[in-house]
Amino acid sequence: MQKGYPIGTGVIEGACRYLIKDRMDITGARWGLDGAEAILKLRSINKSNDFEDYWKFHLKQEFERNYASKYQNIEQIALGFSS
After folding, report:
1. Helix (H, G, I), strand (E, B) or coil at 49
2. pTM for this one?
3. Rounded distance, CA 40 to CA 19, Å?
């Protein structure tokens, strides 16, 4: 309390409304747990301005998961991924 930090929940409630309720509580929407979680993760990444870094990571992971085993020397593939 001496450092002047807020102790109320207003900031947290505002963030929850901004990230979650405004997107999930739209008329006619039906969300399953997996779909809602995926949308909220992407929305959080986007709102924190980390989407570009996340997308590079995502593409690298997808390549390694789906295609890397088809190549003998993955370092010679010019896809722009940094190791």
Report:
1. coil
2. 0.56
3. 7
